[in-house]
Amino acid sequence: MLKTLDEVLPKYINADAAVGAFNLALFPDTKVLIEAAEEMNAPVILQISPVVAEFMGYDYWGMIAGEMARRSTAEVVLHLDHANMVEPIWKALDAGFSSVMFDGSQLPFEDNVRITNEVVKRAERYGASVEAEIGSVAYLGRDSHKDQLTDPKEAAAFAEASGCGCLAVSVGTTHMMRTQTANIQYDLLESIQNEVKVPLVIHGSTGLPDSQLVKMRGYHVCKVNIGTALRVAFDKGLRAELEERPNDYIYIDLLKRPLEDEKQVVRKKMELLGF
């Protein structure tokens, strides 16, 4: 079932669970994520970055991943992740994505509000949902992307003024971490949820220890982004296959192991998130 974030996330504000949002790199990832969701009886958010969407084509993602979502027995959201300009968002909406994120975290507050509100109004015409970000979750090794914890009062004002359906907040995680050594500032997270009425989103969650993924279920965190863990699992599996079978050139045979390794990571994360 193809769903929007607005249809899926509010159910988990007060539930002992959160929905996993997993970043795709290629079309085969779609099958892996949907199968894992069906096996775990869990909803799933298929996240596609603008770079990946451009590489494969927004229309093709909309046609292939969108149709697979519609045919699934699980609730599946097709989501554009971290667009910091509106042009990719317009392409995603035209292609049938059910959800988009405008990331204005590097902009002044007023500009972030203004553009997010513009995106919300356009998305409404498509029946799509909108995620936004206030504060800023840094990227490991990228000094150009600021690291700024979310201010609870500012978050509340932003959510109200922008009209976003869910809000990504910065409370201690970092994108692209390969070690599970990040720490959520739970006092800050609690202050934010006391001020903000919409579902909260945590980015960079590969870096969180398993125990913290479980603990977040007790807060108003409804969407948990995980990307690097999938890429690492796929990479290790593929390298192992190539080492064991250096003369094999059949792609399907070579991809079975890394895709299965990726799937097991997804299943484990879904279990930790309450499914």
UniProtKB/TrEMBL annotation:
Organism in which the protein naturally occurs: Enterocloster bolteae
Mind telling me which Pfam families this protein's record contains?
F_bP_aldolase
Q: Name the enzyme's class.
A: lyase
Binding sites annotated in the UniProt record for Zn(2+) 1? H82, H175, H203
UniProt-recorded name of the protein: D-tagatose-1,6-bisphosphate aldolase subunit GatY
Q: Name the CDD domains for this protein.
A: TBP_aldolase_IIB
Q: Tell me which residues this entry annotates as catalytic.
A: D81
For this protein, what does the record note about how its cofactor is bound?
Binds 2 Zn(2+) ions per subunit. One is catalytic and the other provides a structural contribution.
Keyword Cell wall biogenesis/degradation found: no
Q: What is the lineage of its organism?
A: Bacteria, Bacillati, Bacillota, Clostridia, Lachnospirales
Q: Which cofactor does it need?
A: Zn(2+)
Question: Where do the annotations place Zn(2+) 2 binding?
Answer: D103, E133
* Enzyme Commission number: 4.1.2.40
